[in-house]
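Colleagues,

For the teaching module next term, I've prepared a clean inverse folding example: a structure given as tokens, and then the sequence designed for it. I'd like students to try predicting residues themselves before seeing the answer, so please don't circulate the second half yet.
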């Protein structure tokens, strides 16, 4: 993984452009997500634990929105040599670095890293799928279709790990969790300027749902059970079982 430090929004910008997963972001993405998402490391550990429990031999495992491959590596390291790991991302900069990271890993499970829009990815013979802070970047109107296609491609008993930033309907609760998240980022070394400029960049790019909306969509998609298994401030992970 890259050890670059995230300083993209360190200096004042006359115009803050919409956030993109370009080469500049790819160079510092590991640092960015670790310092921006509380509980991120725990979710990665959870992905490994879930893979050990649910991934089956001779099935496919998908990491949709694999970025640098942190989740993909967890899936590969905790799967058998007859399981195929498939990482998907639509950012060429991310894919290039992901392939390099996977090439350095010597786990037994075969893998494939595809430059592809996850909306065009067929899900077949799957025992596990991961959406690790990915769905929130897809247009809201298309999210139900994606979740339904994942459910249809999972084998009975297969699982989806869905991690997302969430929002709250109650204004006071939303304001409190937003402020606590900003305090978290300040403790990670980000300045008020960096926090404000990145927030502006993500506006209309990252659109969170409520927990209720996510659970309802998983139910509509055809999952038999969905449980919130990690929650840290306004970020959570849901385990959905087919």
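(Answer key — instructors only)
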């Amino acid at each position: 993984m890259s050890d670059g430090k995230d300083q993209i929004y360190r200096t004042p910008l006359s115009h803050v452009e919409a956030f993109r997963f370009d080469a500049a972001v790819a160079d510092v993405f590991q640092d960015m997500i670790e310092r921006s998402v509380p509980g991120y490391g725990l979710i990665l550990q959870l992905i490994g634990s879930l893979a050990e429990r649910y991934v089956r031999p001779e099935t496919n495992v998908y990491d949709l929105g694999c970025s640098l491959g942190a989740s993909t590596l967890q899936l590969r390291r905790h799967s058998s040599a007859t399981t195929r790991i498939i990482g998907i991302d639509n950012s060429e900069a991310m894919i290039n670095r992901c392939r390099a990271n996977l090439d350095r890993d010597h786990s037994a499970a075969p893998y494939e890293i595809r430059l592809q829009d996850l909306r065009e990815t067929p899900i077949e013979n799957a025992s596990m799928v991961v959406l690790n802070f990915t769905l929130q970047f897809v247009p809201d109107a298309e999210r139900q279709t994606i979740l339904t296609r994942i459910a249809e491609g999972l084998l009975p008993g297969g699982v989806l790990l869905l991690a997302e930033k969430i929002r709250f309907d109650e204004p006071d609760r939303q304001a409190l969790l937003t402020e606590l998240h900003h305090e978290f980022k300040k403790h990670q070394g980000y300045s008020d300027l960096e926090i404000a400029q990145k927030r502006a960049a993500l506006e209309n790019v990252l659109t969170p749902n409520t927990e209720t909306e996510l659970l309802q969509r998983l139910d509509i998609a055809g999952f038999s059970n969905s449980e919130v298994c990690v929650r840290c401030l306004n970020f959570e992970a849901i385990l959905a079982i087919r």
